[in-house]
Amino acid sequence: MRTPLVERQIADQAANLGLDPGEVVGRVILEPAAVKRLIEPEEVAALVAFLASGEAGAITGGCLPVDLGWTAR
Fold first, then answer.
1. Contacts of 59 (CB under 8 A, 6+ apart)
2. What pLDDT is recorded for position 70?
3. Measured between alpha carbons, how far is 9 from 24 in angstroms, rounded to an integer?
4. Which of 19, 29, 39, 44 is the most exposed place for a label (fewest CB within 10 A)?
5. How far is CA 5 from CA 39, 40, 54, in A?
C-alpha cells in the first residue's frame, strides 16, 4: 500500500539502484504482484467505511484481503 514509509523506501531504492522511482515500483516492488499497482490508502479506507456502515450488517466475520491478488498468485 502506498504509505509515507513505502514512498521513502521507493526513494531509497531508486538512489541505491540508480533507477527512476517509477522503475523501482514496477521492477522491484511490483515484480511478483498479480496486479501491477500500489494499493491506495483511500481504497482501504473505503472498505473500512463500508464495514462500519449499516450496509455491512450481514458481515459478521471473515477475511477480506485487500491485496490486488497478492494471495492468489
1. 51
2. 86
3. 10
4. 44
5. 14, 13, 33
